[in-house]
Amino acid sequence: MHTRVTELFGIRYPIVQGGLAHLAFSGLAAAVSEAGGLGQIGMACFETPEAMRADIQRLKTLTTQPFGVNFPLGHIPVEPFVAVALEEGVHVISITAGNPENVLRQIAASGVNPLPKTMVLVAGTRAARKAQDLGADAVIAVGYEGGGHLGRDDVGTLVLTPKIVETVSIPVLASGGIMDGRGMAAGLALGADGVELGTRFIAVQECIAHQNYKEALVAATEADTVIIERTMGRPARVLRRGPLVERILAIEDDLTRRNASREEAFEALYPLIRGEVNKAAAIEGRLDDGFIWAGEGVGLIRDIPTARELIERMVREAAAATERTRGMFG
User: Fold this and answer.
1) Angle between the 101-108 and 79-87 helix axes, to the nearest 10 degrees?
2) Which domain does 117 fall in, by range?
């Protein structure tokens, strides 16, 4: 395939694996990159910059193909981690969940040659325009259907993607609800140059997510997700499964009724939404003791293939979907 995204990142297919907190290690990233997509290590998987460095170095032994490192903002200072990524010569740096200005300036001032390509995840046209003005090489348009943390405006991928394509001149990747080649074809038809998938890359054999997590994704329907953390001003989509999620929803209902502040919401919710609680379910498989991220497209997940099988199937499906629509025009 040939799009601006494949040219920008030097990859075969315009398919990017999301950052996946606690799950995006070198094994998964290498499998995706080896299959022709862009695999990514997630900074949120590591407690120290040196631990991330070790996994980047391991990734280099597993693939010679381009790969990225994802940096979610707002939890801990990311500058030392970014410095490691620059020192290790990563091909792509993606930035999510916050203002990308400081990271983009750190990259530009690093003196590294060549500089890594940069992607910024956005949920609105204003953020997309700002990312472009700051020098980002591409933006990821994440719609309301996505799993994990989302934008605050509840705009779906079908509307958001073409709006952002109209707003910026740099390549756009569509994200949110995309699970197969039909979604990929749709994103490209909307003007995107590629797609990013998060939830779907959890249910692949190379992901370290617990088998219980993967099987829960396969069993779920499109109606089995819900938004939490809205009272904190950072809405996020999870699988509606288990007592903990119901407890979070009940607390948020009460907070909303009382018109509680975001500070009060954080104090009430943090013990239930911290990373260790997510890891108890996602990695240890104790689904009733934690929560797991999932997008609405989960209803389209029906198996747990290898990353290569998934990517090659997506490309075939996208080609078939394109041929089908082409055949409708006489």
Assistant:
1) 30
2) 4-206+306-326
> Are 174 and 71 in a shared domain?
yes
CATH number of the structural domain spanning residue 138: 3.20.20.70
Chain position carrying tokens 């990271």: 103
CA distances from 254 to 200, 239, 244, 247 (A): 33, 21, 16, 11
Q: Are 223 and 321 in the same domain?
A: no
Sign of CA dihedral 301, 152, 23, 68: positive
Q: How far apart are CA 11 and CA 55, in angstroms?
A: 21
Question: What residue type is 234 in one-letter code?
Answer: R
Tell me the per-residue pLDDT of 263-321, one tens digit each, with 9 for 90 and over: 999 999 999 999 999 999 999 999 999 999 999 999 999 999 999 999 999 999 999 99
Strand 172-175's sheet: what is its strand order? Answer: 15-17, 194-197, 172-175, 138-142, 117-122, 92-96, 67-72, 39-42
Supply angle C-alpha 195, 199, 204, rounded to 5.
Answer: 100
pTM: 0.96
Same domain, 50 and 179: yes
Q: How many folded domains does the chain comprise? A: 2
